[in-house]
Amino acid sequence: MKIQKYFSLITFSLLVSTMYSQKPTEVPNPSDTPIDLSNPADLIIYIILPICVILLFVIYWRKNKKEKK
Question: Residue 55: pLDDT above 90?
Answer without folding.
Answer: yes
